[in-house]
Structures are given as C-alpha cells and as structure tokens.
Automatic annotation (TrEMBL):
Domain Oligosaccharyl transferase STT3 N-terminal: 27-429
Annotated Gene3D superfamilies: 3.40.50.12610
Name of the molecule in the record: dolichyl-diphosphooligosaccharide--protein glycotransferase
Organism the protein comes from: Durio zibethinus
Sequence segments annotated as region (Disordered): 464-506, 756-787
GO cellular component term of the entry, any: endoplasmic reticulum membrane
InterPro entries hit by this protein: Oligo_trans_STT3, STT3-PglB_core, STT3_N
Main location: endoplasmic reticulum
PANTHER family: DOLICHYL-DIPHOSPHOOLIGOSACCHARIDE--PROTEIN GLYCOSYLTRANSFERASE SUBUNIT, DOLICHYL-DIPHOSPHOOLIGOSACCHARIDE--PROTEIN GLYCOSYLTRANSFERASE SUBUNIT STT3A
Membrane topology recorded in Swiss-Prot or TrEMBL: Multi-pass membrane protein
Pfam family of the protein (one): STT3
Polar residues compositional bias, start-end: 464-479
Amino acid sequence: MTAPETSITTVPRLYTNKTLRNAFGGVLSFFILLLIGVLAFSIRLFSVIKYESVIHEFDPYFNYRVTQFLTKKGIYEFWNWFDDRTWYPLGRVIGGTVYPGLTLTAGTLWWLLNSLNIPLSVETVCVFTAPIFSAFASWATYLLTKEVKGAGAGLTAAALLAMVPSYISRSVAGSYDNEAVAIFALIFTFYLYIKTLNTGSLFYATLNSIAYFYMVCSWGGYTFIINLIPMHVLLCIVTGRYSSRLYIVYAPLVVLGTLLAALVPVVGFNAVMTSEHFASFLVFIIVHVVAFVYYIKGILSPKMFKVAVTLVVSVGLAVCCAVIAVLIALVASSPTKGWSGRSLSLLDPTYASKYIPIIASVSEHQPPTWPSYFMDINVLAFLVPAGIIACFLPLSDASSFVVLYIATSVYFSGVMVRLMLVLAPAACITSGIALSQAFDVFTRSIKFQLPGLSSNAEVHAGETSSATAEAQNDAVNTGKSEETLKDRSSRKSKKKEREHVEKPSTKAKVEKKRLLALPLEASVISLLLLVLLGAFYVVHCVWAAAEAYSAPSIVLTSHSHDGLHVFDDFREAYAWLRHNTDVDDKVASWWDYGYQTTAMANRTVIVDNNTWNNTHIATVGTAMSSPEKAAWEIFHSLDVKYVLVVFGGLVGYPSDDINKFLWMVRIGGGVFPHIKEPDYLRDGQYRIDSQATPTMLNCLMYKLSYYRFVETDGKGFDRVRQTEIGKKYFKLTHFEEVFTTHHWMVRIYKLKPSKNRIRGKTKKSKSKTSSTSSPKRNGRKKKNPWH
C-alpha cells in the first residue's frame, strides 16, 4: 500500500516543479526582453554620441517641420495647413498629402512628456522616436515568432532584429522618417494576424484591423500587408487548410481595415479604387464562397450537398466574373492600369527607367548589389534557408505565413534596395527559428551523450509517466467507488487503453530523441560554431551602427593622415540663406535639397522631395540643362532670386549635382523634348573634361559648379570625376556668385536683374527709336521661355 501513496505524493511535486519552472522561465524571458529593448535603443545612439543630436538625411527635415507646426498650431490647423513655402507658385496641402502616423506619434509623445513636466524640445523627441520604436519592434518580433515556433525562437529573433544593420540604417537616433514607426506597425499587424489565426478570437481580429489602420497612417508600404495577407488566405484555402478561424481573421480586416484606411486623407478612396487593393476584395469573395460551402456541407445530406455546391459555385463564379469585369473596366480607364508608379516599378523593375525617370533617379529605388545583402543582414542570409526548412517541421498556418513573408520580401528587396528594410524582420524571424531549433538539437544531443544524464533522463521520464498514470488511476478508483458497474467497466477499459498508449509513447519519445541525437564531439563543435557565428554578427552590427549608419548626411566627416575633418557646409549655406536673404525670396535647387532648404533656411523653394509634380521638377531640370541665358529666363519666370547647387569636386563628395546631372537631363527631356541626353554625351560617355560636348560645357549646371574652380589649385582637377575640367576660364553674365561654403560643397548664386543684362541694348534702342517704340515694347507679349 506504500507504492500508491508514494505515487500520489509524487504527482503534486512534479506539477509544482513544472509550475515553478514555467514561472521562472516567464520571469527570465521578461528580463531578457527588457535587455533586448535596451540593446535596440542604445545601439542606435552612436550618431548622438559621435556627432550631435541632429535630424538626419532629407525627408526627416520635412517631418520635423510638420511636427513643429502640429505642436504649435494643433491638430485641426495641421489637417487644414496649406504650405505656401513649397512648390512655388503651386503650394501644397500638407494635411491631405502626408502620412500622419509619424507626426502624430511624435507629437503625442511630446505632449505626454510635457504633461509630466519633462520639458523636452520637439527636436529631441523627433531624434529619439526611431530608437524607441526599434525596441517596440523587437518586442513585437518576439510575440510574432513565439506564436509560430515558441518562446525560444521568439527571444532569438527579437535579439537579431534589435541589431540587424538593415533596420539600424533607418532607425538611428535622428532618422526621423516614416519607417521609424512603420516597421513596428508592420510586425505588430502580422503578430495580431497570426494570433487571431491561432485563437479565432474576434477581439484580436479587431485589434488587427486597428494595427493595420496605424500602419496605413504611417507608411505607404501598407499595401504590402493588404496583399500578403490575402495571398496567405488564398494559400490556406487552396491547400485545404480552411477553418472558421481563417474567416474570423480575414473578414474583419478587409471590412473594418478598409473603412479605417479610407479615413486617412492621403489614402481616401484609393483604399477601394486602386489596383493595389483589388486582390484583397477578390479573396474576400472567395472566402465567403468557401465558408458558405462548408456551412451547407454541415447541414445537408451528401446528395443535397452536391446540388447545393453546384448552385453556390455557379453563383459565386458569376459574382466573381462580374467583380472582375468591373475591376478590369476601372483598371483599363487608368493610364497606369490603376497602379502607382512605385508599385509598377516593383512588378516590372524596368518600368521606372523607361517611363518615370523621377522614380528611377532616387538611389534607394535602385536594385541592391550582392554585397549589400551581406552588409545589411550579414550572417542571416545563410540562416534563412535553414529557418524556412524548420518552418516545414511541422507546417502550420502560422509557419506557412512566415515562409510566404520571407519569399515575397526577398523578391521585393531584390527589386528596390529600400525594401531591404521589409526583408530584415522576415530574415530575423526565420533565422531566429533556425538558431533556436539548432540549439535545441545540439543541447539535447549533448544531454543524451553525457554519461549519467541519459539514464537519469530516461528513468525520470519513465517514473514521471508511470507515477502520473498510477496516481490518476488510484484517484479514480478511490473517488468514484460509488459509481455503477457499467461506469466502472467503461473506466477500466479506458484506463487500460490509456496505459497501453501512454507507456509506449513515452518510450517512443525517448527512443526518438536518442535517434535524433548527434555525436557528442559534433554537437559541442557545432554549438561553438553557432556561438562564434553570433559573435561575428554582433561585431558586424555594432560596427555598422557606429561607423556606416551613424553619420548624419547634413554633417560629413573624413579621416586622413592629419586627423578627422568635419564638413558642415550644408548648415553653413542654409544659415547664410536664412540671415542674408529676404523672407519672401525664392530659392531654386534640385529637388533633393528642398526639404532642408525650407526647414533650415525658412525660404520658399520651387521643388522638394515630395516629387508629386513631374512637370515642375522637369522645369528645374530643363533650366539646369540649358545655356545660361535660357536658364535665366526660366528661373526669372518662376520668380526665383537664388540658385543653390551642391558641388563635391574639391573635397571628393560623390553625391553632388554633377553626378546627378544626367537625371536632370532625362527628367527635363521627358517633358520638354528639345532637351536630349545624347547632346550631353561624347560617344555615349558622360564627360566633363576637354572631351565633353559643347552642350555640356555651356549648360548652367556646369558653369555654376565649376565657376572659379581653377583658382583652387591652378588646374581645375575634379577629385570625384578624377579628371581636369574641360572649360576652366569663363565668366557669368546672368548670374553672380554670392556665397560659397568653406569646402566649396554648396554654392549659391543670385540672378542678375534684367536691366543690368540689357543696359547697352536699351541705350542703343533709345538713340534709334522715338517715343512710338515705347507702346510697341510695352504691348509685346512675354514669350514662354521653355516652349
């Protein structure tokens, strides 16, 4: 009688140990996640530590300016803000043309901090928004991966995402761009989708729609979500994995998510009128047809079911054909078939270079090179295939979504280097799964190979299962002694059946683990190699965060034999404009510098980085590509007073306007046919030396860049192009130099007034003509300078 008592007392102890183990694991996971969040935040502070707390790049300056306006004027003024300092003379309605998620998020943070008597400036909040949300993105990655393959894989994936260089490049302190919050919204939306798919909870389905709404507010990349999820739903239906949970997760997303998306002014009716969203509606119809088929299958006999299926499928096909016909009509009525230019560039990588050079001219829209994959995701590129294999062992709805996610993101990242940012979370999730599975296999192999541990594990497992079974059986026999004979016999049969199944299953599990065990030496070496691989990844990520992605483009540095050199020419030029020009003066430059000019110099610009009006940008490109007199006429007609050019020939700065000049020619020639690219090329080569074409040597961009350049070294040697310039000595007749920065990186010119330009011609005409020439001259219509 002692054996049953021992077994009964063993069971609570086992359950207690398991509960304590789970509690300890939960607390440990919490602290690990906390450390991962701290790591994600701190690794992005190199830009502040090495340089200063400043906004980076170009687009973030517009976001910072908009956030300043929001905090000063309020939300209603923000929605109705018409900005007359951009795109002169057209202007821009900011509230209806901007994704407000980032601005509203940073504005809310600033308001909360000031409500708590933490007086931080708007600029400081904007600088640190991206590092804060990188920690949130790491935690969201943990939640997503945990739903797919458990907590171990989730912690590994979160740690990988916290350091991955591709994400760091867009989330360092000062990188105040839409992707700062959009990547968190992307991952969190996917987590809620998987959570709803696993649980079938309508509560999580509603949260999923709200998360999707936040993503729509934050970034135009929300179209990736509204196409990837329908693809996964269709995949589940085709592979026979349909369930009511699939309907619960998808139907609210399409209905509620689309309604919420239409509330965002920049999206509006595009949520239902553009081709990017049509796939979700088509799958929505298919899901309802399949759901109705499964419903009638459960309430009808097989014979009646066949008849009903025929009817349902017929009606469903008719509805689908009608919807497809409407979609085709809508698509056919659009010149771009209902797709945006960027979407068409993703589907057809050659589309932008053929038809929309303004998109192709952006460096981040170019295809990546193979070294960029190693730079941005490093060793994850080698772990992704192993993670995909692990997702198939076994294959579930959640793991199939991860496989689809990584497959589509790999394709899109190969088309556009900017979308390496979308690939990073997928690569971290699959790599986290691979590393977690590998560590599990190797540690289990070591446990079964070490002497004493293997036998103890088997005995412990056998004793646990037998003690649990005996305790359960004794409890049933003693607690249910008053049951009828029929119930007792049925329970005895169930008891024997359970014992017959449980004991072999326990032994089978032990034998299976033993068969899967690797040799001890191989397991130890493999673990050391994995640790070494992780250490290499950490070193590379820290280097990328500290050196490659921490430098703000507004302040440049260079290392040479005599130490560190800092080039602060951009802020020097904008400060000069702010203090030495009138408030209403208009500044013309290439569109790259529009946001910075408006935000830092507070002057009106002709074009900026929004690039919404191709004709306006082509006008500026045409002026830069034209001779000096024609360019003066174009700029004068636009009321331009100053022209700003960026030149890197003296210090070796490669991203200057001379290197971008062919894109100005292509964009300008796309609207004004008299601008032809071959006129600027010598035998198909772009040259600025003595072999350059006369059209190139006489265009405005060449003259504004190389004016007085020969005075720097006596030769006029361009360090970027590695050659001497072709035309060294010339004078400007319609422009005058008013400011050049210390390192010649930014040069500002002023348009000469027309009376100085035609002074001699005016005197000559006065001596020849009488007073009758005056009404003729006054009555002459002004000629359009670029037709």
